[in-house]
Design goal:
Length: 229
């Protein structure tokens, strides 16, 4: 009798586990996917719904930032932390499930991402400001804005500034660029426009209790572009 009870309990556990994907709410699954791969949250839910997700790790992001902005790994780590803070504070999304067919579910995701165009303008401004700060540290206190260089009538002073700029080392240049990037990232704001992405999800045919995102890598790329602006 005791053995029979154990068998029944074991059978119930198997049914519960294998039925997890079927019973899960598809909207919750889609939302968890986005929260996990974009915001690095909902980790427990992601482990429950997905056998494996191929989103980049923190180290992958640091490597990407290091290569993209030509900064050291340590500097890239600082940039990633600021970027993720702004991503959490400024961006948002909503999920609406469309009509499903068979076991496939289609999610319409509307994303309010970051304003990339404003970021580029801010970066140019911050780069000029860092350069002015660098010149002022060199003793050129009359330079308060980058445009002031063109207004200098004192030939000796102008020649001195131009010499300083020509002798700007690669190390100094990289540091100026890094400081400008940090300040520009801190001012990242949400875009006024929304983008629409479609996700298709279905129960995993091999790992029955899990879900998969159809064309996951491609859909992740589209989501990332939408959130980054």
């Amino acid at each position: 009798m005791k053995i029979k009870r154990i068998v029944i309990i074991f059978a119930l556990i198997v049914v519960i586990l294998t039925g997890c994907a079927k019973n899960a709410d598809s909207k919750d699954v889609a939302t968890t996917f986005i929260n996990n791969v974009i915001y690095d949250t909902d980790n427990e839910e992601a482990e429950k719904y997905f056998y494996q997700l191929d989103a980049p790790s923190q180290n992958d992001l640091i490597q990407d930032f290091s290569e993209l902005f030509d900064v050291s790994k340590e500097q890239a780590k600082d940039l990633v932390e600021i970027y993720q803070e702004r991503l959490n504070e400024e961006t948002s999304f909503s999920v609406k499930m469309k009509d499903s067919s068979s076991n496939k579910y289609k999610a319409q995701v509307k994303v309010t991402g970051l304003d990339q165009r404003a970021f580029n303008q801010t970066l140019d401004k911050k780069t000029d400001e860092e350069l002015v700060k660098w010149l002022r540290d060199k003793g050129y206190d009359t330079v308060k804005h980058i445009e002031d260089i063109d207004k200098i009538s004192d030939e000796k002073q102008l020649k001195g500034i131009l010499n300083e700029l020509n002798e700007l080392t690669e190390k100094d240049h990289n540091q100026l660029q890094f400081e400008a990037l940090k300040e520009a990232f801190k001012e990242l704001k949400a875009s006024k426009e929304t983008k629409t992405i479609y996700l298709e999800l279905e129960p995993d045919k091999k790992e029955k209790k899990y879900w998969i995102i159809v064309d996951e890598e491609k859909r992740y790329g589209e989501l990332l572009d939408a959130f980054q602006g």
